Request: fold
Amino acid sequence: MHATLVLFGGHVVTAVPGASPATAVAISGNRIVAVGSDVAVRPFVGPTTETIDLRGRTVTPGFNDAHCHPLALGLSLREVDARTPPNRSIEDLVERIAERASMQPPGTWIVARGYDQAHLAERRHPTRDDLDRATTQHPVLLVRACGHIGVANSLALQLAGIGSTTPDPPGGTIDRASDGTPTGVLRESALHLVRAKLPEPTVAELADALRRAGETFLRFGVTSVQEAGIRRAEEFLAYQTLARDGRLPVRASLMILIDDLLETCRELGLRTGFGDSWLRIGPAKLFLDGSIGGRTARMSRPYLDRGTLGLWMDDPEAMKRKIVQAHLAGFQCCAHAIGDAAIELLLDAFEEALRRQPRADHRHRIEHCSILRPDLIDRIARLGAVPIPGTTFLHDFQEVYLSGLGHERLRYAYALRTFPDRGIVAAASSDTPVCSPSAMLGIQTMVTRRNAAGHTLWPEECIALEEAIRVYTANGAYASFEEQKKGTLEPGKLADLAVLETDLRSVAPAELGRVSVDCTIVDGRIAYVRPGAV
Reply:
């Protein structure tokens, strides 16, 4: 049998433990048919076979982002870029928002996203007064990088009905000045009061956002994504429309939000696994707590700088019941759980669900799974739960973690060495647009545990390069019950590959995030080529 595409002359990382060294891959249609040496793969080259001389470059399985927000990423590409950097001060943010205001009709919304107060010169959140300096003619919402905190200007607060007498909503807080006046900073469910006033995007706009996000993922070698929260039928329809027309750029597994869609799915008999290799229903998801940067992730001990334990998104017993209900409905279950108290509650829910209805291979997931204690790690291993760590979080947010929790409480934060040592399968994620969608930056962080300033946090949790690649490929497939289809470079698997610009073995660990993707192959087709990289 002749192949349709052969890559040869490279360093092939198969992500199969103990696999023999390989330099070539042969593809027929959308499947891998051979992996091995150039000599072993040469017989698959026929007169119509397309060939790529790797010239020593590294090939990996296509990266699988186990927790990200493609819809939000695509929509964010048309929002004001508020990341820090490139913005370095509140004044920079004000100037960017004012520039956008000059281009939009009065009364239309301006949304900006990406700031981190720990990286701003002022070392504080912006306020309504700051945003009012940018514009008083447009409602403005500035969202922190984590997505759990935002700042609204006076007009946006007015439209949302937030004033001095507005009570904090359950699961959220409205920051206030000493006289009770809202500062504009809104945390968790309080932020939703403003978000509810934003116009909902149409199916066509959502589909366009997915195409833009897909192009971004392909540039980073990401061929599979796990969308971390579908709450509207229109969002599912946007995915389905692209998949039906063969225009979905990357494979997608969709988490459905329990509060929004579980009952509908249960009535229709839908559950985890429905779909095909391009689009499928993934876990049922719940939010238990918030973020460390917002001091809203729920902890067992107070934050050092706020004297608070963080927030629950709902009554803890009610959240446990919802997880159990999703399990009983046949779903793989997962929850956003960052603080150790939230992770403990989630494990309690998993244990109760499995007591009521045992399931041998549930693979219930802990999204983010950030702040762990040894006793929680023991329970995760015993239950067979799957952590989904944000592998770039320590690169982007290390300073704000340390200021809120201190060094010792971060011993097992994103414990990528401890997990496999305890037999726990953890899958890598970017949580983009919270962090960069770059899988290589996530791999760099797993290997070094260094932040952007070069500071290393608990190097005991560093892992080797090939282990990190496996966490970003094979383990992602495992987390969505797809390890028999993809995630490794083996005959019979789907032909999803990433070609890196160099041999990764020659790259210093702290420079891995700078490595570009030369080519991304999805379903046996070349879906992206970096300009000049042929």
User: Anything to note?
Assistant: The domain at 79-195 is CATH 3.10.310.70 (Diaminopimelate Epimerase; Chain A, domain 1). The chain is about 30% helix and 20% strand.
